[in-house]
Amino acid sequence: MGTRLIEAGLDIHSDDDACLWCISRPEAVLANHLADLHAGSRILTTNTFGANSDWLSRFGRSSDDMVAINRQAVALAKHAFEMSGITGKIIGSIGPTALVDEKTTRQQMNALLDSGADILLFETCTAGQATQAAEWVEHATDHPIWITLWNWGEKPVEIATELQQLGVSDWGINCISDIEQIVNIFRELNDHQLPATILRPSDLLPSEFINLASECKSLGGLYFGGCCGTTSEHISALDRLFNNGSV
Questions:
Q1: Residue 169's closest CA among 130, 94, 119?
Q2: 3-state SS, residue 181
């Protein structure tokens, strides 16, 4: 979402942030959601990567603003489903800046769930952040918890084991563009019966994207989307791949 809003005029070097566009430019956020649905997506991720109290305080925003932004983000995703006539799930995105402390994490988590998010996703985590997030939200909700890492470190099996023990529903990769690294992680986890089920790579061509998705599907992948640089063209490519029965 962030890279697409930058293309629409967001200047991250100014006093602005992608999540603030839920309030200031909701039509741009909605347009991206609709483009993805029309391209074949059946899951939408909220525009809330930085919508936590600690990060928003840098822009002079309060805890009340945090709640309002998360509420509006979920509402925009719901509206996109309603406008398109498509049924699907809403993922509430929580970025690593929320993991500054447990209070900040739980505040955003509760704001998203109270607004109607179906799944919570902690994304772009390091190994330490992933396990910390899992510890803080363990037993906090019956909703599925997803966690994706950009850095699995040197012991991915140990990390996945801990996430499983802490009740995380699904885990995987986001914000990585190294295809060999991605496949190696998927293969290692699958070999240990701890499959990564989420694939959201960055900055790949659509052809690279679908070839990677096909290989990761064979290694336990279930949920496919994209991170930085992904457009509705990538979603269309995935839709053609899966709906044509190729994987």
A1: 119
A2: helix
Mark residue 149 as left, alpha or beta (left: phi above 0; alpha: psi -120 to 50; beta: remaining): beta
* Token pair listed for 70: 């998360």
What top-level class would CATH report for the domain 2-175?
alpha beta
Q: Give the 3-state secondary structure of residue 92.
A: strand
- pTM of the complete model: 0.95
Burial group, residue 111, by CB count within 10 angstroms (0-12, 13-18, 19+) = buried
Q: How far is CA 109 from CA 12, 168, 198, in A?
A: 24, 14, 20
Instruction: Let me know: does 187 contact 173? Beta carbons within 8 Å.
Output: no
pLDDT per residue as tens digits for the range 113-148: 999 999 999 999 999 999 999 999 998 999 999 999
The type of residue at 149 is: L
Q: How far apart are alpha carbons 220 and 236 in whole angstroms?
A: 21
**For residue 244, what pLDDT is reported?**
72
Q: What is the mean pLDDT of the chain?
A: 96
pLDDT tier for residue 155 given thresholds of 50, 70 and 90: very high
Structure tokens at 245: 């029965």
Check if the beta carbon of residue 95 is closer than 8 Å to that of residue 121: no
Quick one: pLDDT at residue 242? 87
All structural domains of the chain with their residue ranges: 2-175
Degrees (nearest 5) of the Cα angle 31, 35, 38? 135
The tens digit of pLDDT for each residue in 28-44 reads 999 999 999 999 999 99
Tell me how far apart the alpha carbons of residues 221 and 234 are, in angstroms, rounded to a whole number: 17
Instruction: Give 135's Cβ-side CA count (13 Å radius).
Output: 11
Rounded to a whole number of angstroms, the distance between the first and last alpha carbons of the chain is 27
